[in-house]
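Retro notes (design track)

What went well: tokenization of the new backbones is finally stable.
What didn't: we kept losing track of which sequence belonged to which structure.
Fix going forward: every design gets posted as structure first, then sequence, in one message. First example under the new rule, 285 residues:
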């Protein structure tokens, strides 16, 4: 299943690139020249989330932002499970096909575990790490409760039939108010229940992906802990609280720079793109 939606070039000024992964066709952005940065998104977002960061960095970096299968403009394969393991495998295949060396891995929300799974499998090719409002270890009690609630039949129906994550979670996760056209770019890439299966699966993965998250909890410090790291944090995030998650993140990387984003909520790329781009330039430019 392909999505019949053409982004507005005034909002998303990037030509489409396609990669045939083992499971389906992946859409991605590939802009600029310089040290490569791999941008990995969370739920229910896609590469559109990074648009304002990419336009600020593409003069100095090669910016690669992927849409997982089931998200954005990528395919929705019928036989795909939409698990985090599968997403990481597809993104890893793209990294290998593009022959990225010395790349910086950036992850937000579920993009943290995805990007870290890709990076820990290729540590010799990783230059540095950027993480924001994310995690890479097994779910704590708060996450587990959220997973159980969102995985109930009733809440899955809200996600699949009423597009709950896009209509409710996205606006609540931003201090910045999206324009109607920007909101449509999140809404129209998820036009039907079949198109939203990836969104509905991610909350369940908070518990179901425990084996992967257990591996990352040890592999990230062991394989990437000596890499330069940039930790960006939206301090108004109601779910990913800095006091709960940031100390463990900082402890994983011996050389980390932490940049608080005081007015940003969860979707930091919408709330503070200038600060994010400047922090990346300062750390890795």
């Amino acid at each position: 299943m392909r999505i019949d939606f053409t982004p507005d070039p005034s909002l998303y000024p990037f030509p489409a690139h396609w990669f045939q992964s083992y499971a389906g066709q992946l859409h991605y952005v590939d802009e600029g020249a310089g040290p490569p940065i791999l941008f990995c998104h969370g739920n229910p977002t896609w590469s559109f989330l990074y648009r304002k960061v990419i336009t600020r960095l593409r003069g100095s970096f090669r910016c690669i932002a992927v849409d997982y299968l089931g998200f954005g403009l990528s395919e929705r394969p019928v036989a795909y499970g939409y698990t985090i393991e599968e997403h990481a495998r597809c993104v890893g295949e793209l990294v290998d096909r593009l022959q990225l060396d010395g790349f910086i891995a950036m992850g937000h929300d579920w993009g943290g575990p995805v990007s870290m799974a890709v990076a820990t499998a290729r540590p010799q090719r990783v230059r540095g790490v950027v993480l924001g409002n994310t995690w890479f270890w097994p779910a704590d009690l708060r996450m587990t409760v959220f997973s159980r609630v969102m995985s109930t039949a009733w809440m899955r129906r809200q996600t699949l039939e009423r597009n709950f994550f896009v209509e409710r979670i996205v606006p609540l996760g931003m201090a910045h108010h999206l324009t109607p056209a920007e909101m449509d770019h999140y809404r129209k890439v998820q036009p039907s229940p079949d198109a939203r299966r990836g969104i509905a699966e991610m909350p369940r993965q908070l518990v179901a992906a425990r084996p992967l998250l257990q591996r990352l909890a040890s592999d990230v410090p062991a394989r990437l802990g000596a890499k330069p790291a940039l930790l960006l944090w939206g301090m108004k995030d109601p779910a990913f609280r800095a006091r709960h998650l940031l100390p463990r993140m900082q402890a994983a990387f011996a050389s980390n720079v932490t940049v608080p984003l005081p007015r940003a909520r969860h979707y930091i790329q919408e709330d503070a793109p200038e600060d994010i781009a400047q922090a990346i330039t300062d750390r890795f430019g």
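Added context from the reviewer: The chain has one domain: 17-284.
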